[in-house]
Write a structure and sequence with these properties.
Layout: E1 2-6, E2 15-20, E3 25-31, E4 39-44, E5 49-55, E6 63-68, E7 71-79, E8 86-90, E9 95-99, E10 104-109, E11 112-119, E12 127-132, H1 138-152, E13 159-164
Parallel strand pairs: 8-13
Antiparallel strand pairs: 1-2, 1-12, 2-3, 3-4, 4-5, 5-6, 6-7, 7-8, 9-10, 9-13, 10-11, 11-12
């Protein structure tokens, strides 16, 4: 199953839609404009919140929490490194490997693919394709990819390694 994210350039408060492989709107992602730290809400097309992402403001290194419903399902932390950014995903047993310079990533669990992420080049705004192996992982995978985008948006180039706890 595939999802497509096209972020709107200059969008006040990060508001964009996620489309399915047939081009239909599947989710709406809205950021909070006036909040301490980054906060993103993911809604299905009925308006029901299916995921929530929030940044820990008082953390030495960037740290984000991913919620599905009332349950925290993951914590993503940037680790201190000198050369290439490195992140840790805790709570899911997922790992990510890829090159941010090439905008190609894959999240796996035990070597099995969960989601492959590709960023399109030469587009107005960021455009991503998510290829999700199991539809049951769709919402969590989308939320984790959105979180990784939040954490890495200020980084440019290089390779990254994200590991699970």
């Amino acid at each position: 199953m595939r999802l497509y994210i096209k972020q709107k350039v200059f969008s006040w408060g990060d508001k964009f839609t996620v489309k399915d492989e047939n081009g239909f709107d599947k989710y709406v992602v809205e950021g909070e404009v006036f909040s301490w730290g980054k906060k993103l809400h993911v809604y299905d097309m009925t308006g029901r919140e299916v995921a929530f992402i929030k940044q820990e403001v008082w953390s030495w290194m960037p740290r984000y929490y991913v919620f599905c419903g009332d349950e925290q399902v993951a914590e993503i932390k940037k680790e201190f490194t000198f050369f290439f950014p490195k992140y840790r995903i805790e709570g899911l047993g997922w790992e990510i490997d890829g090159s941010f310079m090439a905008h190609e990533y894959q999240i796996t669990q035990g070597g099995q693919p969960i989601v492959s992420i590709s960023k399109e080049w030469m587009t107005w705004g960021d455009s991503y394709e998510l290829d999700i192996a199991d539809p049951a992982d769709e919402i969590v995978a989308l939320a984790v990819v959105l979180t990784i985008d939040c954490v890495t948006e200020s980084n440019s180039g290089g390779s990254v390694t994200i590991s699970s706890n």
